[in-house]
TrEMBL record, chain A:
Coiled-coil ranges per UniProt: none
Originating organism: Cohnella herbarum
Main location as per UniProt: membrane
Entry-linked PANTHER family: ABC TRANSPORTER PERMEASE PROTEIN MG189-RELATED-RELATED, POLYGALACTURONAN_RHAMNOGALACTURONAN TRANSPORT SYSTEM PERMEASE PROTEIN YTCP
Domain (ABC transmembrane type-1) ranges: 71-276
Family: Belongs to the binding-protein-dependent transport system permease family.
Name the record gives this protein: Carbohydrate ABC transporter permease
Length: 294, 301
């Protein structure tokens, strides 16, 4: 059956595509601008003459950046943080979600533990007491200050334990008859089945560690221990101070400063911009599973 | 009685063992700070610690509530949160409805990818982007001057800055909620639309009478759950973007605590505000979860 669309319907489609295109542009044009500025000569960039295409094309900023020790030091801290943090987080989430996914009949103390962890989602000490505990446990200035306080994410644990519960009980029983203990149950039965959930949690964990900046600022006394995003935040706070007085516009025109800054910020975003389109489907699935459930 | 406990422990000990690391970390870095709240009632001095610092009762609370500007901080928190929640739900909802009408799948995917991008980037990167596009000689002011408007100090004006806070928060988060809303639309029974078509309902009527009512549970769920968060106006975002010029319009409870505690070293009063906030948040979160359970049978476990 072919029927002609009404005029108003076609008009709607045209308007719809225009509106959505505009919103699509809002999603990535700002980053195109950032890239264009970082590839322009500083004179044009600070005069505000660059919009979406580099003016006075130069890769000076990137060359300068490759010699910038602070950037690389912080990049190394970030990579270390992502590696250690992800391993610790994933281990803890799996080790916690598995026992909590048991039925009460099989694990008597389950409810006690569930409440023990659940309470942390509703109430906490807040910024100042947490800072003092991190300080008292001697973590300041160490990579563990960025890993240990958030080592167990209760949200991801809940997500995973709900997934674990959907594992068919027959599989588990068959494995137990074959002599499997809890550890091999986790590795051989639960994890292979839960790959979609594990992938989602893994990706969120990696992105979370890569993107965090505030704990770096808070717990690291020496800027050489800053992870990349914390280092980038110092660049932003620096402009922030200049913005207060209009007179200091001159300061914004310092040699290479603007293009160098944008180049570094762009590099801070690049890994995610490259990886994320490929991983998007996992994220999307995980979000839907995690939020909309009956 | 005792025997069964022992027998159970014998079979269940591996499960306890697996939970041990998680329990230890949670005790140290969650329950530890929670106990540290006692400093809200102390004249806390780091050298003396929690045990030897002097107790002052409610004096920290009185001190903070009487600080000039504290009312403004509360107001800022509420108003910024309110608009973030309102637009953070309404815009993704509208987007999801519009996107659902697009028939080319490649275009749909392109929009999703682009709208979702800011969600995965840190506030530092987004902050960098915002500063570049809203600076005095940035592209936004360039656009404005081409239609004859004088340049605006977006990041240094109390009026504009809040708008930027809300706008950029919506920009960062809209992909996420849009996905949830889209999932809800997909879940609606297609035969309802066929029936409506037979009855002569146009697309607009269909949206009004089928799509929106079908999405109601998820809309109500997301809005009730967001009530619990109303005192979190976006700490990292504001801390990164604001400056003393715009404190008046953008200082929220969290940023206030941060400055009071870590810059002015007033640990006791800062912990008192923190506790005040956590207490109210606890109430609101419990209430919102209770309502979410009543309305949508939503449960965490």
């Amino acid at each position: 059956m072919v029927y002609k669309e009404s005029l108003s319907r076609r008009a709607f489609h045209v308007v719809n595509v225009i509106v959505l295109s505009a919103i699509t542009l809002m999603g990535f044009l700002p980053f195109v601008h950032l890239l264009a500025v970082s590839l322009s000569s500083n004179t044009y960039a600070s005069a505000g003459e660059v919009t979406l295409w580099p003016k006075g094309f130069t890769t000076n900023a990137y060359q300068y950046m490759s010699e910038n020790a602070a950037f690389f030091e912080s990049l190394v801290v970030s990579l270390k943080r992502v590696a250690i943090g992800t391993v610790v987080n994933m281990l803890l989430v799996v080790m916690t979600a598995y026992p909590l996914s048991k039925e009460n009949a099989k694990f008597q103390f389950r409810t006690v533990y569930v409440w023990f962890f659940a309470i942390t989602m509703f109430f906490g000490g807040g910024l100042i007491p947490t800072y003092i505990v991190v300080k008292e446990t001697g973590l300041l200035d160490s990579i563990w200050a960025l890993v240990l306080p958030g080592a167990l994410n209760v949200w991801y644990t809940v997500m995973l334990l709900n997934f674990f519960r959907s594992v068919p009980k027959d599989l588990e029983e068959a494995a137990i008859i074959d002599g499997a203990g809890h550890w091999s149950l986790i590795w051989r039965v639960y994890l292979p089945i839960s790959i979609p959930a594990i992938a989602t949690v893994l990706l969120f964990t990696v992105v979370g560690h890569w993107n965090s900046w505030f704990d770096g600022i808070l717990y690291m006394n020496s800027p050489s221990n800053y992870p990349l995003q914390s280092y980038l935040s110092t660049l932003i706070t620096a402009i922030n101070v200049q913005i207060i007085s209009v007179d200091s516009l001159a300061a914004l025109q310092d040699l290479g400063e603007k293009t160098l800054r944008t180049a570094q910020i762009f590099m801070g975003a690049l890994p995610i911009m490259i990886v994320y389109p490929f991983l998007q489907k996992y994220f999307v699935k995980g979000i839907v599973v995690g939020s909309v459930k009956e | 009685m005792n025997n069964t406990v022992i027998r159970r422990l014998r079979t269940e000990w591996p499960l306890h063992f697996l939970l041990l690391p998680g329990v230890l970390v949670t005790l140290a870095y969650h329950y530890g700070p929670t106990l540290g709240i006692v400093m809200a009632f102390q004249k806390f001095q780091p050298i003396l610690g929690f045990f030897k610092s002097k107790w002052v009762g409610m004096r920290n609370f009185e001190y903070v509530f009487h600080l000039p500007g504290f009312e403004q901080v509360l107001w800022n928190t509420l108003i910024i949160s309110f608009f973030k929640i309102l637009f953070g739900l309404a815009i993704p909802l509208a987007l999801a409805l519009l996107l659902n009408e697009v028939r080319k799948t490649w275009f749909q995917r392109l929009i999703q990818t682009s709208v979702f991008l800011p969600f995965f980037l840190s506030w530092t990167v987004l902050g960098g982007v915002l500063f570049e596009i809203f600076t005095l000689r940035g592209p936004v002011n360039g656009l404005l001057s081409s239609i004859g408007v004088d340049p605006i100090m977006f990041m240094g004006s109390n009026g504009w800055f809040r708008g930027i806070l809300v706008g950029s928060d919506v920009w960062k988060g809209m992909g996420y909620n849009m996905i949830i809303f889209l999932a809800a639309i997909v879940g609606i029974n297609p035969s309802l639309y066929e029936a409506a078509e037979v009855d002569g309902a146009g697309k607009w009527k269909q949206m009004l009478h089928i799509t929106l009512p079908g999405m109601m549970p998820i809309i109500i769920l997301l809005s009730t759950l967001s009530i619990g968060n109303i005192l979190n106006a976006g700490f990292e975002q504001i801390l990164l973007l604001y400056n003393p010029v715009v404190y008046r319009g953008s200082d929220v409870i969290d940023t206030f605590v941060y400055r009071l505690g870590l810059f002015d070293r007033q640990y006791g009063p800062a912990a008192a505000v923190g506790l005040f906030k956590s207490g109210i948040s606890l109430l609101l979160v419990s209430l919102s979860y209770f309502m979410a359970y009543r309305f949508s049978r939503y449960r965490i476990f």
